[in-house]
Design goal:
alpha/beta; Rossmann fold; 6 helices; binds NADP nicotinamide-adenine-dinucleotide phosphate
Length: 246
């Protein structure tokens, strides 16, 4: 590893948009730590990218578990002494597995367990990972955090249905704003940029076969935000590299 090479952690890198983010970041020359909760599919994805001669390494990470997050942070510190990019991509859509919502998804039917599940993976995971990795970013006064949100979390467009997922994606947007507010207040001017994004409706296991967008299109804004220049946008919400309302 060259000393100047930036190191990026991507969660949920074994498939879908996360795998494509790993590919595109590595194509840009970053050393990518592809992480997944399932070691088998994560290692296979990592090997796929290594066969393309891309700089990618693997580490297991289940964002639901504090010990797993701590383990990853220790690995980053010991192995590289740095963490330049964190892409909080891993996510679930548990409304579809909620037996109470089988006849139609609704805030009036959702089980609290379903909301807890969504919050644990989609909000608390990114939250604890940020707590664990921002100190490493502060060491070099450089960091880019990309929080994978969704249009379903937009307050300005809030509709009914999918309450657990919607709560969690509004929650990760709040996390973006809070992280940015505290980092922006740091002196000297902090070069740690935190942003939220929506990838659009993308053909993945979550998005389904009818989705109009490819993973390449879904990953594009994440890669752009992960490699923003100094003084780039911070504390914003983006789709297709353009600012969108909260
Ligand atoms: P996907 O194909 O279902 O992939 C989800 C990824 O998250 C998988 O790698 C999955 O790992 C991982 N994951 C789930 N729980 C995890 C945990 N506890 N720890 C670590 N990894 C975990 O979905 P996708 O479409 O690529 O979604 C990626 C992100 O984009 C999500 O945050 C999603 O909410 C967001 N998004 C997607 C769309 C869309 O249309 N696809 C639209 C808006 C936003 P396993 O393989 O182990 O399950």
């Amino acid at each position: 590893m060259k000393n100047s090479q930036k190191v990026a952690v991507v969660t949920g890198g074994n498939r879908g948009i996360g795998l494509e983010i790993c590919r595109q970041l590595a194509q840009k020359g970053l050393l990518v730590i592809l992480t997944s909760r399932d070691q088998g599919s994560g290692l296979a994805a990592c090997e796929e990218l290594q066969k393309e001669e891309l700089p990618v390494r693997y580490h297991v990470l289940d964002v639901d578990h504090a010990a797993s997050i701590e383990n990853l942070a220790l690995f980053m510190e010991k192995e590289f002494g740095r963490c330049d990019v964190l892409v909080n991509n891993a996510g679930i859509f548990p409304d579809v597995d909620d037996p109470n919502q089988k006849g139609g998804s609704s805030i009036f039917k959702v089980r609290v367990e379903t909301i807890n599940k969504a919050m644990t993976t989609n909000v608390y995971g990114p939250f604890f990972l940020s707590q664990a990795l921002v100190p490493l970013m502060k060491k070099n006064n450089y960091g880019r955090i990309v929080n994978m949100s969704s249009g379903l979390g937009q307050l300005s467009e809030m509709g009914g249905g999918y309450p657990a997922y919607r709560f969690s994606k509004t929650g990760i947007n709040a996390l973006t704003r809070m992280l940015n507010a505290e980092l922006e207040g740091d002196a000297p001017t902090s070069n740690i940029l935190v942003n939220s994004m929506c990838p659009g409706w993308v053909k993945t296991r979550m998005g389904g076969a009818d989705a109009p967008r490819s993973v390449e299109e879904g990953a594009d804004t994440a890669v752009w935000l992960a490699t923003l220049p100094d003084k780039g946008p911070r504390g914003g919400f983006f789709r297709d590299r353009k600012s969108i309302p909260w």
